[in-house]
């Protein structure tokens, strides 16, 4: 009886050794794939931060993040007209690639412009709202629409679907919408107290 039990234990032990090795290999593979996936996601995030976030689709992708993913997989970095040469240079530096000019097949770099709806001509068809990739247009059916200027990325996608051609792209500096001039005299707490007294 005793030799029989020892034989069973020996067989179980012989079965466990390959299973242990296989489970160790699977665990190592899972860690490797997770690290590779994390590095890939981190690279996509870094590339995405350098893109202008206009979501215009001129690069041939649905938005900036899909283009960032494609770049991380080897697609050309020169397909973003809104970003222009500055974005291409930043991407080339990040990816250690040669600087290259903007691909003219995807458009040309234009000065930053925001959409402005001539509200008295708007018929409230909502076609511009449906076209806007960043929800920067406010309005309802059969009511006037307006552009939330600070949200507009200047992608120009709302202009074409407008049936009454009441949307203009007005050139502006995006920076002026985010910064305000400092006052010439900034009152200190003591100065405020003196002015109140």
Task: Give a quick summary of the entry.
The protein has 197 residues and is mainly alpha-helical. It has five helices and four strands.
Structural notes for this entry:
With 197 residues, this protein is mostly helical. Among the domains are: 50-106, no CATH class; 113-175, Alpha-Beta Plaits. It is built from five helices and four strands, in the order αααβαβββα. It has helices at residues 2-50, 64-72, 84-95, 127-131, 189-196, and strands spanning 113-117, 137-138, 146-147, 167-171. A two-stranded antiparallel ribbon has the order 1-4. A two-stranded antiparallel sheet has the order 2-3. Helix 1 (2-50) packs across helix 2 (64-72). The longest helix is centred in the first third of the chain and has 49 residues, at 2-50. Residues 191-197 have low confidence and may be disordered.
Helix and strand arrangement:
Elements: H1 2-50, H2 64-72, H3 84-95, E1 113-117, H4 127-131, E2 137-138, E3 146-147, E4 167-171, H5 189-196
Antiparallel strand pairs: 1-4, 2-3
